[in-house]
Write a structure and sequence with these properties.
Length: 140
């Protein structure tokens, strides 16, 4: 069985909830990613922020990214998958919630990686990728 750990990108890092958005954007640039999980002081995931969140919800809204905290943009229930879950379960989670990035956590519930669209495209068959794209981008 292929697991979430088999298809994820390793080395994902959290941004602390109290970190400013300008620093979060710098971390995204340094890591060449478009999203970062947001974690509390115990390294437990509280949400995820994207580069688009920073632009639309902060900069375009006239706020100063050096004053707004990453935790301020966390909304809703964070979605994640266990590293030992099947790849099919990971895809189902992404499809059901129409999300393009899925944090992967270990047995201690701490971040161990991230599954992105690129990971899906790299590891699955063309038919699986087509089904995934259709379901994630479907409009209700």
């Amino acid at each position: 069985m292929t697991t979430a750990a088999d298809i994820m990108s390793q080395g994902a890092q959290c941004v602390p909830m109290n970190e400013t958005l300008d620093r979060a954007a710098q971390l995204m640039r340094e890591q060449n990613v478009g999203a970062l999980p947001v974690c509390d002081e115990n390294e437990r995931m509280q949400g995820i922020i994207t580069d688009r969140d920073i632009v639309v919800k902060c900069v375009a809204a006239g706020h100063d990214p050096s004053k707004v905290r990453a935790g301020d943009l966390c909304e809703g229930t964070p979605r994640w998958i266990s590293a030992d879950a099947s790849a099919e379960d990971a895809l189902a989670e992404m499809e059901t919630h129409q999300i393009r990035r899925l944090p992967v956590v270990g047995g201690d519930k701490r971040l161990v990686g991230m599954i992105s669209e690129a990971d899906v495209a790299r590891t699955l068959t063309d038919d699986q990728v087509a089904t995934f794209v259709e379901r994630v981008y479907a409009t209700s």
